[in-house]
Amino acid sequence: MSENFILKAQLPIAILGVLVNIFHIFVLTRKAMRTNCINILMIGIGVCEFYDLVFLIYDDLVNMKEYCSTVYSYPLVLLDHICAALEDNLHRLCTWLAVLMASIRFLAIKNALNSKFDVLSRPVFGLKVILVAVILSSLLTSFVWSQFEIVEVLPGDKCFVDGTPRYKKVMNHRLAYRILAVTDGMLKILTTIVLPVFSILLIKELRKAEKARKRLKRDQTRNLSSKTVQTTKLVLLMTVTFMVAEGPFGIIYIINGLFKEVPGVLTFTSILVNFIGLFSALNSITHFLICLFVSSQYQKTVKEMLVIVRCRKINTGPNPAGTR
User: Fold this and answer.
1) Membrane-spanning residues where (predicted)?
2) In terms of pLDDT, which residue wins out, 208 or 286?
């Protein structure tokens, strides 16, 4: 399977993913959905995935060109560097938020009767968690991407065009980059190990909640328990999708850090990244479907949005003949 074929297959899926994510984020940001920590974290994950898909489309279009056609003026190379660093940052942040979401959900249902843990369910706690995660992920990204330098293409370079200044990115500190890339890769693998642990713990708590729900008699309490089970199922399914998607990226980062200069390794890992990117695009669409089919609150919000749109169409429809 050629890299160009993967890019062509990836592009329409990424475009579909962008459209789905726009709707997904719009639903999650409604007032009715911004009522708990988990949904706030879901908004953060949705925003990260949206940018990831937009960059994937841009990267696909660039990679389909000849190498020399991607050597630009200094401002464009700088912009490309910043956008790539931001994508790396948000991709990592997305996985971290998934781990934090699973851990927060586990602690919340494990200590449901302890009022001290009620703060874990509040929206403001979700915002604080996102802020801390953004800062830590941004620091790691800045360390990794500061190892690159933008240099002018000189005579003798195959992309040199006489009289036309062009620039490209080169790695400045190879040893430092290797260390940081391996560290980043190990962190990605660590999150992949942590995610199944929380998956098992959430399954155990889910079974306990199901048993408790069967023993309940009052309708109101039963409804509350049902919402708890739905939220836990939602987090569990999201955790599984991230577990499947993130592990290979960690392995690729480590390979790039250790064997980047070995002939053929960079090409091989580049093909793997594009292939995994195909599944990442599908993964983001899966998250929307999980919310739609598992969360009754999400379903209700979507229905209300559709009703509002329908009412507006009726109200703005053409007037009957003969009226003004």
Assistant:
1) 6-28, 40-58, 95-113, 125-145, 175-203, 234-259, 271-295
2) 286
CATH classification code of 3-303: 1.20.1070.10
Domain residue limits, the chain:
3-303
Collapsed DSSP state (helix, strand, coil) of residue 324? coil
Residue 322 φ/ψ region, left for φ over 0, alpha for ψ in the -120 to 50 degree band, beta for the rest: left
Q: Give the separation between CA 43 and CA 117, rounded to whole angstroms.
A: 22
Do the bridges between strand 148-152 and strand 167-171 make them parallel or antiparallel, or are there none, so unpaired?
antiparallel
What is the pLDDT confidence band of residue 156, given thresholds at 50, 70 and 90? Answer: low
Cross-strand pairs, 148: 171
Query: CA-to-CA distance for 256 and 109, rounded, in angstroms?
Result: 40
- Rounded to an integer, what distance in angstroms lies between the CA atom of residue 198 and that of residue 94? 17
Question: Could you give the maximum distance between any two Cα atoms of the chain, in Å?
Answer: 82
User: Which residue would you say has higher pLDDT here, 180 or 41?
Assistant: 41
Query: At residue 20, what is the residue type?
Result: V
Phi, psi angle pair for 171, to nearest 5°? -80, 130
CA–CA separation, 219 and 208 (whole Å): 19
Helical spans, DSSP H, in the chain: 3-28, 37-63, 74-110, 123-145, 174-215, 219-259, 265-294, 296-315
Helix (H) or strand (E) holding 167: strand 167-171
Least confident of 19-23, 36-40, 70-74, 272-276: 70-74
Nearest Cα neighbor of 45 from 95, 100, 106, 109 is: 95
Tokens representing 217 are: 């008699």
Residue 209 sits at φ, ψ, to 5 deg, of -65, -40
Q: What is the pLDDT of residues 205-231, one digit of tens each?
A: 777 766 766 665 554 444 545 667 777
